[in-house]
Every structure is written in structure tokens, then in C-alpha cells.
Amino acid sequence: METIQFLLDGFVVALQPMNLFLVIVGCAVGLFIGAMPGLGSVNGVAILLPVTFIVPPTSAIIFLAAIYYGAMYGGAISSIMLGIPGASTAVATTFDGRPLALKGMADKALVAAAVASFAGGTISILLFTAFAPPLAHVALAFGSAEEFALMMLAFGTFIGLGGDDIPKTLFSICIGLVMSAVGLDIMSGQPRLIFGDIPGFFHGINFLVLAIGIYGIGEILWTIESSQGEVSVSQAVVSVRRILDALKELLKSANTIVMGSFLGFFVGLLPAAGATPGSIMAYGFAKTMSKNPESYGKGNINGVVAPESANNAASTGSMLPMLTLGIPGSPTTAILLGGMVIWGLEPGPRLFVDQTEFVWGLIASLYMANFFSIVLNIAFIPIFVWVLKLSFTILAPIIFVLCVVGGYAPTQDMHDVWLMLLFGVVGYLMRKLDYPMAPMVLAIVLGPLAESSMRQSLLQSHGSVWVFFERPISGGIMVLALLLFLMPAIKVGKKLIVARRTGNAGK
Amino acid sequence: MNVARKPVILNFILIAAAVAFATNAVAADWQPRKPVEFVIMAGPGGGADKMARLMQTIIEKHDISPKPFIPVNKAGGSGAEALVHLKSKTGDDHTIMVTLNSFYTTPLRQPGIGIDSLSFTPIARMAEDTFLLWVHKDKGIKTMDEFVAAAKAKGKDWIMAGTGKAQEDELLTNFLNTTYGLSITYVPFKGGGDVAKQLAGKHADSTVNNPSEALGFYQAGNVVPIAAFTKDRLEMFPDVPTMEELGHPNAYYMQRSVVGAPGMSDEAADFYRGVFTKVYNSEEWQEYKKKKSLLGSFITGNELEEYWKVGIANHRKLLKEIGEIK
Q1: What is the ipTM of this complex?
Q2: How far is A137 from chain B (nearest CA, A)?
Q3: What distances in angstroms separate CA B303 from CA B86, B183, B189, B297, B308, one per listed residue?
Q4: Which domains are seen in chain B, by residue range?
Q5: What DSSP state is assigned to residue B36?
Q6: Mutual orientation of helices B102-109 and B80-88 as an angle, nearest 10°?
Q7: pLDDT score recorded for residue A162
Q8: Rounded distance between C-alpha atoms, residue A385 and residue A106, angstroms
Q9: CB contact under 8 A, A350 and B216
């Protein structure tokens, strides 16, 4: 009851005219920032942080949270329309969003992304509202062993798939892992795989560079080859009726949306993980649990709703450790945390007790940001779809320019642009040879997290691998992960048994 | 002829003077022409990160710089990533960095990256951070003697979480090990925020966090300070004894300094010195220093360089003791 009282007070704060105005502006700005490749919520919040000094702290965080939310929605737009991930959190959305757009179902994919984002946002805010303080304990219970187990589970979802060619999947994961090892080693500080002494490799391979290369540049090459110059992408149509139909169809994806929301929220809760791993893991889970995993990557609507519900849920989730523990759950919340320090707030276990107006004003504004984001997003869908009506000869150079900008923006290093172009060509060739690309992207995102958590755990246990199984949470997750790893073997075994039986029957 | 020539020479002198004056005026008024890259040598959420973001916001709030300072975290390899990045920007007037003691240790440990700490442009020492020994409240440990007894009993299974490899935290862990005959295992994490969480979640037995990193959990009553690695007792923790009182003097501080890229122009360096003087004197910074139990006054230029020389010599000795360097 007390919670509801606090929440209502929070709404009183969030509904003040200025705060309401800031939420709407923030959502619109965020939508745009998220849709621009290379610019994500991190840059958006960082650039606009100074603006917030002219308003009181509560209004300031409301504005920044609205940008954060809007950007989560916006990221899906360029992923679907152009095949370039608009933000790191939307990489998984390209896997199926782009094929849907190419099939002339861009409006459907956009509606799905918006609705999934809304559902993910809503479910996670409800969880946040009801259980914020106890959930902080969940975040604390996750040590390095648990983190590693979770990473294994994520890898398991990509290996234990029936549809893809398993050796090729393994190869793709391994390449991704090798690339994630490039750069300075976290534990010893020694440089690794820097190819002689190329300084550009010191900061490692930014996974956005890989994703933009493969999905942006690779896509252009692929389209040029497969269409021989005669591309017709103008079958994109949009109407209120189609949008309503799309909404109805989405009911079938309700399970995936709920799964993505819960998973995203819990991954977001864990400090250091954040929305990007959350969305990729949700995609993996959706594919593993699906009855026809082979349809993923070719335009399955569930492949859009899973990562989109997860990334919005994770962005809410990652605010929780920021507010209750003072530890950012994602790069964006790290910047929000900086803002709170200057506003004179001390994030940490005392915040919920000492600053109720601030905390509940923020929570209430998350409900509002979520609502306005979906309204703005659906209203703009016809404009986004119009982009697809441009002829390929105009669209391709635009995509190319956006790719280059997106590759340059995160580190501002030309080295990364060359690397991205190289990945584009290699990615195109690998695609021609039918290698799955998603596991490689997954590996480069999760590789560094998995490596450091594994080495930290082993240091704590003096080299004993039992540390991953002895602790209840990590043990449980590890067993699940191992089952997923063994699934291909189990399937093969099953087939053999069935074959033998039918063989026997034949005799 | 003579009459005609005089004005020419005069003109020449006048023009030369005007040009010289103009350059001087420009030099004195050097200002950034584009956003300044503000590199942070540590991960998000740690002491260095929070401080850098505070500096950035003070600069924005008081309109101290015409162009914004954009913080960029480069935590990799105990700060090696940041140092190498800054070195690659030699001569650049738009790159500065917030640094700590890995500014000394990382180049000493990794001669391969070819960094000379003294090549960086000294801009400002903003504060000196302090270290305390922390344990979880549930351990029931209140004094150093109890800490030593508990750590001895657990042997190498006693885990100390800290930031980075062979950095401040590991040096202090080594000090505890050798002074009290302990065999604590040190486990490096990426930032002070993460380290604080390890202790609060009981994944580690102790930490040597800075006050700013442990403060949230301390105020919530989750973690307890046992001893301070300072010369005098800290105002904020009046009941916590210093190592000196405990009979093993070890005052160890961490610099919170701002450096510029090597070979930065004097004009630009002066501009940044001016910026950080204003930041240091701002009400917000003084308030933060007090609230986070920071010590140390503002020093710059040659004085800062001398301070670094002492720091480098000191850390060379410390690293030799733990066998990290020869």
C-alpha cells in the first residue's frame, strides 16, 4: 500500500507541466538519437547532461531517463529499415527485422518493435515499482561465478540450436571469441593480438564496428550481388488497417515478449551487463525455445520482439543497481550516476529512504516516457516506411555514409572505419558460405565479460573449477547451460536410436 | 633617402610589434576550438570516474570552458589503454586525462608500452584520495587484531577484491600480507564500484576502497572500516585508527590529478590550468572533497612534476617489493 502511495506522489511530480513537457521532448530526442547509427543513448545522455543544470534534479533525471527510453525505441528503426544497428542495444533486432523489411513487412516489424518495447518497458517498471529494494539483493548475490554461469547460458542458447549448422556455429563463436580477446588484457594489463604493434587494437575490437560492418556494409554488397542492380524495395506500404492487423498478429508473440521482458530486466539488473547482452540473450532464448528455429534470421517476427522487449526492460533494470547500490548497470546509467552526484544526490542504499520525491518522481516518469515513446513511434511509422520507397541507388550511398559515421563515432578513430569495411567484406563472404553471423556478434559482446568473470572466480577458488558448481545460483545456471551445450549431442543420439529401431523394424 | 626610409623602418617595427602583440594576445586567450576529450583512466562508477564527471559538470555549470569536456572511460589494462591513447595524441591540445596512481605503476610494470610518466603535461592535482580497510558488517570484525586473527584463520581463502593489477589496492594488500604475516588472495576487478559491490555481496572478505567508493554501503551499515592508511585520523571516520597508531605506519595516498597529452602547447596547458583552478575553488568541489574525505591541496606545473618524481620513486620501490619489477 505504501508503494502505491509513493507512486501516486511520484505521478504528481511527473505530471507537473514542465516535467511532462520534458518527458515528451526527451522521448522525441531519444527516438532520433537512437535511430542514428553510432549515436546511442550513451552519447545522447552525455551530450544533454549539461542542459539539465537549468532545471531541478528531479526534472533533470526525468528528462535524461526519457532520452534513454526514447533511444531504446529508436534503435530498432534503423536496424529494421536500413539493416544498420542504430545502437548497440539494437544489434539483435537487425537479425530478423531487416529480412522482414526486405519482404515488404517493414511496417509490421516496426509495430512489433514498438509494442514489444512498450511491453518490455511496462513489465520492467512494474517489477521495479513493486520490488526495487529486494531486487537490489539479487544484484548483490551475483558474484563473478554467477556472472560466468550466465554467460555460459547465453552461449548455450546459440550452440544448442537445431536449425543452424553446428560446426559452422561453433566456428563463428570461436572467431568472435578470438576477436573479443584482442586488446589489453584486463587482468594483467598485457597487450594481446595487436598484430605487431598497431595502436588501434589496444582498445580492442568494438563490437559495433563488427556489427555495422557485417550488417551494414555486408548487406549492401549482398543486395548489389543478388539483385544485379535491379532492386525493387518499393513494395513497402503502410496504412492504419495494416498497423491494426499487425497489432492483432502480435498476440501470438505474447509469450516471447514476456520472456524477453523478464530476461532483459534481470540481465539489466546485474551491474556491468546492461541492455546489449540482455537483448542478444533474449534473441538466443527465443530461438532456442521456438518450435521452428530455422525460421529465425529469415524474418521471424519473434526475432524482433524478443530483443526489443529485452532491451527496454534491461534499461529499466539497469537503473536499479544505479539507484540502490550506486553502481551503474550500463554505460548510460554510468553517466546518469555522474549527473546525480552533481545534483547533490548520493546514490546508494539510502537513496530510497532519503530522497523519496526524486526516486518516485523518476519511477513515475518512466511510465510516462514509455507511453509517449510508443505513441510517437507509431505515429512516425509511415515516415520511416517512406524511406524504403527510395530507390536503391539513392539508399545505398546513404547507408554507406551512415555506416562510416557509425563506425567512427564511438572511438573517433579511423582505424575502426577501415576495420569495419574489412568486416563488411569478410562478413559478406562468410554469408555467401552460409556461416551464421549472429553467434559471432554474441561472442564479441559476451566474450570479455565471460573471460574476466571466469578468471576472477578461478583466482578466488585457487584454480578449482568447482567454484562454478558449488554455489547454488551459479551451479543451477551452469547445469542448464551444460544441458544446452549437450542438446545437439542428445538430438544426434535420439536420431541414432530412432534410426536403429526403424532399421530393426525393417528387418 | 634617409627621410623616406625612416617611416619604412618605423612601419616595419610597428607591424612587427603589432604582429607580436597579436600573437601574444591569441596565446593568452587560447581556447579550445572543439570539444575536449576528457579521458578517464578507470571504469565507470569508481572514484576516478565519479570525480571526472563531477569536474565535467562543474565546468558546464559555471560555464568555465567555451567548449564542452566529453568524458571517455578507458579502463583497460590497469590504465595502459588510456596512457597509450594519450601518447598517441602527442602534441594535441584537446586531449586531457584524469589520472591516479596507475599513472606511476602501469608504465613501470609495462616498459613495453613505452610510456614515460613525466612526458605528460602537468595540469593540476585536484586532491589526494585516502584508503581504508573495509570488511562486511556480518563478519563482526571491529578491530585490526580481530581482522588479523580472522584473515590468518582463513589463510589464502581470504579474498581481497581490488581495482586492477599491481595497482594501489594490490600494493596495500601486499603491505598487509607482509606486515601481519597473512596470505590474503588478491582478485582484481575493473573499477572501485564493482569492488564495493563484491564486498557488499560477500563475494570478497575485505577491500581497501576509497571512502567515495564505499560510502553508500557504509552509510547503509553494510560495511565497516577497520583502519585508515593515512597520517592522521580522517574527520569523517574519527573512530577509525590510522596504521601509524596501530604500530605500522603506512600513509598511502592516491593522486587525483589532471594531465594533458605529451607535448601540449604551453598556451593550451595554461588554459586548462586556469579551468581546473576554477573547478578546484568552486563550492561544489570543496563540498565534494569534504564529503568524500579527500585530502591534498591544488598543485600544478613544476611542483606537480616534482610530486610525480617522488611518486614514481616510491612506487618503483613498492613494485620491487612485490616482485612485479626487477
Answers
A1: 0.79
A2: 8
A3: 22, 39, 33, 12, 9
A4: 36-128+253-321 (3.40.190.150), 132-228 (3.40.190.10)
A5: E
A6: 90
A7: 47
A8: 7
A9: yes
